[in-house]
Write a structure and sequence with these properties.
This protein is α/β, with parallel strands linked by helices and about 290 residues long. It contains eleven helices and 13 strands.
């Protein structure tokens, strides 16, 4: 059985490679990268490194040749080729190369989610269905690492500011999502949909967990969306990015990441880290109690 992990030079891809190496022989693992110079950290692992660019269908078919199972890590928008079309290129190449199974990293509740972030994932999932390639959708909720700037700042005494009110998020660590992805990739009987995430928690609960982790107090401010946007811009964030982040806080308030599930626990075979444990893992040591 040959396993391939796409965009393996990225953080999630590298974590997935490292976990897969614990499960199968290096010679059965293929890592694809768009820039071969960024794969140097994989050179001594024994895995085979192949070039593949989501915008280049020919490179994808060549990379997928002889592969049985693919961990398809979703990408970002390309100025020349849209994200959805890049994803379609991956699906088309996998089908042409005879890939037997795809595990695709999607977003929480992608099919029915109201957030703008879900649209490309929803279309990709449907394209995979239409392609008739056996696949699992790994609907990752939210990486706790996405909150690192907020956590680090408040650990140093800055206000903990959010606009999502009582909206809940199923935060988990990126390494936990990577491990779960690999476990699904090598599973004999994978499900079609996995809603992956930790315990659903509010930002107020995240702030409490942070105080416990750092044993330090700080102000917790729940603000309106427009104030949140203005605060981001005042801190130096470009206007369009600030607008997008503020809008996503509103989406969270409306429940787009409130998708509780035992899937991550079940796939890992253990409970994910608690918020306090996870915060202690990702914060620099000098900020911890």
């Amino acid at each position: 059985m040959k396993y391939l992990i796409t965009t393996a030079s990225g953080k999630l891809g590298t974590m997935a490679i490292n976990h897969l190496l614990k499960k199968v022989a290096p010679e059965d693992i293929i890592a694809t990268v768009r820039d071969l110079s960024k794969a140097k950290h994989l050179e001594n692992s024994g895995v085979q490194i192949r070039y593949a660019d989501y915008s280049n269908p020919e490179s994808l078919v060549k990379a997928f040749t002889g592969v049985d199972r693919v961990l398809f890590i979703s990408t970002f928008e390309n100025p020349e080729v849209s994200r959805v079309n890049q994803h379609k290129n991956v699906a088309n190449a996998a089908k042409e190369a005879g890939v037997q199974f795809i595990a695709y990293t999607s977003l929480a509740n992608a099919k029915d989610s109201a957030t703008y972030l879900a649209a490309d994932h929803r279309e990709t999932e449907q394209y995979l269905i239409d392609s008739q390639i056996p696949f699992s959708s790994l609907r990752n909720n939210w990486y706790l690492e996405n909150e690192l700037a907020l956590l680090s700042g408040s650990a140093q005494g800055k206000p903990f500011v959010y606009a999502a009110k009582e909206g809940r998020v199923c935060w988990a660590l990126e390494r936990e999502y990577a491990e779960a992805a690999v476990n699904v990739l090598i599973s004999e009987n994978p499900k079609t949909i996995y809603e992956l995430g930790g315990t659903a928690s509010t930002y107020a609960e995240l702030a409490t967990a942070l105080k416990e982790a750092v044993q330090n107090d700080f102000e917790v401010l729940q603000v309106e969306e427009n104030i949140y946007k203005d605060m981001l811009m005042k801190a130096g964030m470009p206007e369009q990015f600030a607008i997008s982040l503020a809008a996503f806080q509103n989406d969270i308030e409306n429940g787009v990441l409130d998708v509780p599930s035992s899937d991550l626990k079940d796939v890992l075979g253990r409970n994910p880290a608690t918020l306090t444990e996870a915060i202690r893992e990702i914060l620099p040591e000098n900020l911890l109690a």
